[in-house]
Amino acid sequence: MQDLSTSPLYPAVLNGTILDPDWASNDLPMSDRRFVWTPMMKALSYAGAFGGNVVCVQPMVYVIRRFGVHRAMTFIGLLGAFTCAFTPLALSISFGLFVFFRCVNGLTFSMLFTVAGVVCNDWAPLVERGIFVAVLTGHVEIAAMFTMPVGGAVASKIGWPYAFYLNGIILACITGLFAFLYRDSPSKHPFVCEWEVQKINRGKSKLQASGSSATPPYRAIFSSPVIWASWVAVIGTFFVSQFTITWSPIYLNKVLLYSPAMTGLISVIPLVCQLLIKFFSGLMSDKLHCVDDVTKLRLFNSIALVGGAVFFAVASIITPTTNWIDTFLCLAPVALLGFHAGGYPKCLIMTSRQYSSFVMSVVQMVSCGTMFIGSFAIPLIAPDNSFDEWRKVFILYASMLVVTNTVFVIFARAKAASWTEEHGKRTNRVASIDGNLSQIWTLPEFANGVVALSHQIK
User: Fold this and answer.
1) What count of Cα atoms within 13 Å lies in the side-chain half-sphere of residue 7?
2) Are 374 and 207 in contact (CB under 8 A)?
3) Smallest Cα–Cα separation from 400: which of 424, 377, 430?
4) Are 106 and 87 in contact (CB under 8 A)?
5) How would you classify residue 68: left for phi > 0, otherwise alpha for psi between -120 and 50, otherwise beta?
6) DSSP characters for 363-419?
7) Euclidean distance between CA atoms 185 and 345, whole angstroms
8) DSSP alpha helices (H): ranges in 223-259?
9) How far apart are the C-alpha atoms of 45 and 34, rounded to whole Å?
10) What is the pLDDT along the chain (458 residues), one digit of tens a residue?
C-alpha cells in the first residue's frame, strides 16, 4: 500500500521515463495503487481507530444495556465487516474518508472489553472468573497473530486490498456464528440446562445473577481507590501493548535489520507466548489456593509489568548487535504481559461484580486513549528509528510499567465492593430515631418508624 518499489510505475521512475508519477492514479488497478503519506498522516491512520474507539465506548455501554449484547454485537460486527471490506475504496477516494472509516472501525471494537465484563458477570461462575477473563481478552493477541502474517502474505502474493477483503469476510462469518450461538442469559440458551444455570449463579446475589442491565452507581465507582488503581494499571499495560502490535515490527526492521518477512514471523512468536501465558495465568489464578486472592492479584500483575520493565531496562543499556539476545530483550516483555490476566482485569471483575460492564468499558476507553497518545508520542521520540531514540522509548516503557504496577499493588483488593450488594444500590441510610447509631435503616424503614412513633405519642 505504501511500498513504492512494488508499484508497476517504479521501474519507469528509476530509468527516468516518468518524472512525476501519480502512484494512486485511478487508471491503475486497485492492487497497483500506492499512497505516499507524511508522518502526520501515518499517525492519523493509527490514531483514527483509537480516537473513534474512545468516543464511542460510553454510547456503546448504553446500547448494550438497552438492547443486550446479542443484538448490539451482531449489528456492530456486520458494520465492521462492511467498513473493513470497503476501506481500499475509501482510501482511493480521499485520505479524509479513509480516516473516517478508521474511526468507524474504532466503533466496532469499542465494546469488546464491555462485553467481556458482561459475559464474566452473566456467564462465569465465581470460581472461574480468571479463566473467563483470560479467554475473553485473548482477542488482542489472536487478532494480531492472524492479521500480521496472513495479512502480509495476502498483500504480497495477491494484493494489499485483498487483505482488507479477507478480514471483512472473516468478520462477517464470525458475526453470524456469534449471532447463532450467543444468548444474553444462560437461562434463555437452548443448549444450557438447569443445573448448569445453577452452577453459573452459585454464590451470586439475586442482583448479580439478574444480569448486567442495572444502572451503575457512578459516584461510588469513581470514588473507589481499587477501581482507579486498576485503571492506572491499564495505562502501563496498553502503552506497552502498542509496542507489540504497532512498533515492534518497525524496531525489528529498522534497528535490528530483519527483513520484512522475518520481521512478521518473529513478531508473532511473543504473541503466541503471551496468549499461552494469559490462559495459564487465568487458570492458575482460579486454581491456586496456597495464597489468598489479593496476593495472587498482586503477584500476577507484578510479574507482567515489573518483569517487562526489567527487560526493557536491560534492552535500553545493551547496544544491539543484531543477534537473538537483542531480539529476546525487546520481545520478552510482550510475552510477560500475558500474566496480567490474573491481575487488574480479574480485580475489576471481582470488585465490581454486576457493574463490571461499565467498569470494563472504562478499561476500553483508557486503553485506547493510551494508544491514541502513543500513536503520536512514539514517532516524536523516535522519528529516525535509531537505537539512541529507541533507548528513550524503552526507558519510558520501563518507568510506566513500574509506576503503574506500584499503584495497583498498593490499592488492589479481591472482595466485592459494598456498592455491589443489593442493599447498597441507591439506598440512602440514616441512623434510627432512637439515637442508636449501630442500627441503620433505609429511608422507607425510617418513614415507617416515624409513623409508628407518632402513634405512640398520641
Assistant:
1) 22
2) no
3) 377
4) no
5) left
6) HHHHHHHHHHHHHHHHHHH-SS--HHHHHHHHHHHHHHHHHHHHHHHHH---SPPGG
7) 22
8) 225-242, 248-254
9) 15
10) 666 767 777 777 777 777 677 777 787 888 888 888 887 887 788 778 878 888 888 888 889 888 999 999 999 999 999 999 999 999 989 999 999 998 888 888 788 888 888 888 889 888 888 888 888 888 877 887 888 778 878 887 888 899 999 999 999 999 999 999 999 989 889 999 989 988 888 877 666 655 555 678 899 999 999 999 999 999 999 988 888 778 888 888 888 888 877 887 888 888 889 999 999 988 888 888 888 999 999 999 999 999 999 999 999 998 887 778 889 998 899 899 999 989 999 999 899 888 888 898 899 889 888 888 888 888 889 888 899 999 999 999 999 999 999 999 999 998 888 888 754 444 433 333 333 333 333 444 434 544 443 444 44
Q: At 3, give phi and psi (nearest 5°).
A: -80, 100
Predicted TM-score (pTM) of this structure: 0.74
Find where cell 522475518 sits: 262
